[in-house]
Amino acid sequence: MSKCFLIGYPVAHSLSPAMFRAAFAACGLDWTYEAVPVLPGRVGSALAELRERGALGINVTMPHKEEVLPYLDRLTSRAQAVRAANTLSWMSREEGWEGDNTDWPGLVAALSQAGLPPRGEAVLFGAGGAARAAAFALAEQGLTVTVVNRSLAPGEELASRLRRWRPGEHRFLRWEDPALPGVLEGAVAVVNATPLGMGELRERSPLPAGQRLRPGCLACDLVYHPPETLFLRQAERAGARSVPGLEVLLWQGALAFQRWTDLAAPVEKMRAALYARASGRAEVAK
Ligand code: NAP
């Protein structure tokens, strides 16, 4: 029996166990997936303990995606660029743990399914861990990225790292910049990678009030609790096509499944389990 885990804090309400257990069952694998709460500062010892228990794959979620890096034996180029790992694979006793970032190709898969155009402007709200993965994903797909962030330094740094990685007109704008509404109106994709819309910020959206969007623009919210956010509702009203955060969660999980098992992910089974678990959780939260 192969064992996979999720580490993060908190993880009690994670949707990932339901999604991965459905995937293993659909493929007839007797693999297990368990969420383990790990306090900040305890990631190194947790990795050693889980390895003792026979872990072959570990997902890493907030707040450990950066803290885990020094404990890994090698990183994929994506994890190196984003400076965050969310999928760890045990290679062998000699090779140890490899860290990958499947948030990046997960976003690409979710946007591609919805018909992401091969070029144009994208607006990305946020400059934290999830935003870094999204920024590289959008630039890799040929889009020019405008990063919008509350704090200046991380926003400017992300835009300048993008320019070094994939030369282009990637830039940083403040929320209050008078150029922002026009940039948003011309964007082919708008991605929210802030917690606006979630929990206590449920009534907030990153979009300025009354903002117009390009018809058919893709609006993707990385927030998935609740599954349908104010940002997605506003964007749909403005003529955009919405890509919910659950789709990004699904595809990053499908890519982790493929890495660990070398099998094609049973995406429909994973999606059904994920949405069923998410709607149950949304009911409980009401
Ligand atoms: P993070 O590293 O803590 O970054 C948070 C970002 O949001 C920062 O840019 C921060 O700006 C900004 N922010 C925080 N509070 C804000 C506020 N009140 N107003 C405006 N901006 C604010 O978090 P993260 O890991 O990137 O996660 C961000 C979101 O993405 C979370 O909701 C998370 O659940 C979601 N997520 C979803 C997936 C998925 O698969 N769907 C994957 C990963 C993350 P400052 O720089 O100014 O602090």
Q: Would you write up a description of this structure?
A:
40% of the residues lie in helices and 20% in strands. The protein contains 10 helices and 12 strands. Strands 2-1-3-5-6-4 form a 6-stranded mixed sheet, with helices on both faces. Helix 4 packs across helix 9 and helix 9 crosses helix 10. The protein is globular and about 55 Å long. The protein starts with a strand and ends with a helix.
Describe the SSE topology.
Elements: E1 3-8, H1 16-26, E2 32-37, H2 43-52, E3 55-60, E4 74-75, H3 77-82, E5 87-92, E6 96-100, H4 103-113, E7 120-125, H5 129-140, E8 143-148, H6 152-165, E9 171-173, H7 180-186, E10 189-192, E11 218-221, H8 230-237, E12 241-243, H9 245-261, H10 267-285
Parallel strand pairs: 1-2, 1-3, 4-6, 7-8, 7-10, 8-9, 10-11, 11-12
Antiparallel strand pairs: 3-5, 5-6
Helix pairs in contact: 1-9, 1-10, 4-5, 4-9, 5-6, 9-10
Residues 62, 103, 126-131, 149-151, 154, 193-196, 198, 201, 222-224, 245, 248-249, 252 line the site of NADP nicotinamide-adenine-dinucleotide phosphate.
Percent of sequence in beta strands: 15-25%
Strand tally, please?
12
Q: What form results from the Cα inertia axes?
A: globular
Order of helices and strands: EHEHEEHEEHEHEHEHEEHEHH
Major sheet description:
6 strands, mixed
Low-confidence stretches: none
Number of helices: 10
Task: State the end-to-end distance.
Answer: 38 Å
Q: In summary, what is this structure?
A:
Helix content is 40%, strand content 20%. The chain has helices spanning 16-26, 43-52, 77-82, 103-113, 129-140, 152-165, 180-186, 230-237, 245-261, 267-285, and strands at 3-8, 32-37, 55-60, 74-75, 87-92, 96-100, 120-125, 143-148, 171-173, 189-192, 218-221, 241-243. The mean pLDDT is 96.
